[in-house]
User: What shape does this take?
Amino acid sequence: MARKTTTDDPLAPVTLAVGQEELLLDRAVQQVVAAAHAADPDTDVRDLMPDALRPGTLAELTSPSLFAERKVVVVRNAQDLTADTIKDLKNYLGTPAEEITLVLLHAGGAKGKGLLDAARKAGAREVACPKMTKPADRLAFVRSEFRTTGRSATPEACQALVDAIGSDLRELASAVSQLVADVEGTIDEAVVGRYYTGRAEASSFTVADRAVEGRAAEALEALRWAVSTGVAPVLITSALAQGVRAIGKLASAPRGARPGDLARELGMPPWKIDRVRQQMRGWSADGVAVALRAVAEADAGVKGGGDDPEYALEKAVVTIARAARAGRG
Assistant: This one.
C-alpha cells in the first residue's frame, strides 16, 4: 500500500470489518471516523450501501481534492456489491489514495469472498465483528465494556447482567452505560438486581419508556411492579430524566440527519435514536419543559423532600404521559 501503517492504526488506508454483529461493525466505523475527525475536523464522511456504488463511483469518491481534504468512505454489506464495483475496489486496493480511508464492512461468508481475500492480500487492517452466540462470549463482552469505562464490576454482577438482558449486544452495552452513569463505586450483583430482576416490566427503563410514549396506565403498572420488587425510587427518577432528555435532544437536532451522525452528536447508540424518534411523536418543547420539572420534583421527593416517594413518582409519570400526548391533538 502507498502509506506505511500499523495494523492497529484506525487511519490505515483500508479497514476491513468482518462479521455480522451490527454493534461491533458500527463501532469499527465509529473508531475510524473519530480518528479521522481528530486528525482533521473537516473530514468528509461518506457512508454507502451497495446500491449507491456503481462502476466509476469509487473513482469519483477517491479522486484527489483541490483542498487535499481528508475523507472516509464507508462501504456497508460489501459482499453484496456488483461484480463491476468489486473490480473497481480490487484495482483501488493496490494504490489507495492519500488522505482517503476506506472502510469495508463484509459479512465474512462465501458471498463476495474474492473481495475479502483481495483486501487481506493488500494488507488491510482487519477488525473482527463476529456474532456472539455463546454465553461466555457475551460475558467477556460485558467485562470488556466495564473495563473500557474504567469502572469495576464483580464477576457476579457481569453474569447477572448477561442473565437478565440476554443476547442483544446493544442492550448489554446500553445497560453497562446506564449502570456506570447511575452507580458510584464497584458495581455488584445487588446493584444489577435492583435494576433488572423481577418481572421484566418492572425495570426502571420500562417505566420511563411507557411514560414518554404517553401510555400512563401501563407506566403506572410498571412503576408499581418496580417498587414492589425493590427497584430503588432514585433509579426510576434517573430513568425518567434520561427518557425525557433524550426526547429533548433529538427534537432539537437537525432534521434529516442520519442516525449514525445523530448518535455521534447526541451521545446515543444508533438503535436508541430510532427508538426515541418513535417515542417523540406528540411531544412539544413546552411538553419537554413540563416533564423535566415533574422529574425534578419527583427526584426531590424521593430523596427526602417529600413524605411519600411512591406518590411523587406516580405524579411524575402521569405528568410525563400527559405531556407526551399533548401535541397529538
Observations:
- Strands lie at 14-18, 44-48, 71-75, 100-106, 125-128.
- Residues 134-181 form one domain.
- The two ends are 60 Å apart (CA to CA).
- The chain has 15 helices and five strands.
